[in-house]
Design goal:
single chain, two-stranded parallel sheet, alpha/beta
Length: about 120
């Protein structure tokens, strides 16, 4: 369950466009390639690695088809700590609490003054 659907760097069309730019100006490498570079294998010009770090359903439903269509290797980091435990990750708990807040702003004093519009 994605509690904050607005947390993303781009949408599907934007991701496809970014992949096209990456492929036009560099070489998308796999995790195995990176392991080879660590062992001394020479990297290609402008190596880039695609990594997605949350493992939410949209990685499977949206990202994976785009990456496959582009024939680009990618790494998906899927957390294994809470999937079936009925617990939320801290970032999802914060989002849930902020969505349920009755206030329209949040004022913080530490570590520096900050006012957030909710």
């Amino acid at each position: 369950m994605l509690l904050d659907p607005d947390v993303r760097e781009t949408n599907a069309r934007g991701l496809a466009a970014q992949l096209a730019v990456m492929q036009a100006h560099g070489t998308i490498v796999s995790l195995d390639d990176v392991r080879g570079f660590v062992r001394g294998k020479r990297p290609p010009p402008n190596p880039m690695m695609l990594a997605f770090d949350d493992g939410y359903a949209d990685c499977h439903d949206v990202v994976l088809p785009i990456v496959k269509k582009a024939c680009a290797p990618a790494v998906f980091f899927v957390s294994t700590a809470y999937p079936d435990a009925g617990r939320l990750f801290f970032w999802d708990r914060i989002t849930l609490l902020l969505r349920r807040a009755r206030k329209t702003t949040l004022s913080l004093r530490y570590p520096r003054p900050l006012e957030l519009d909710l």
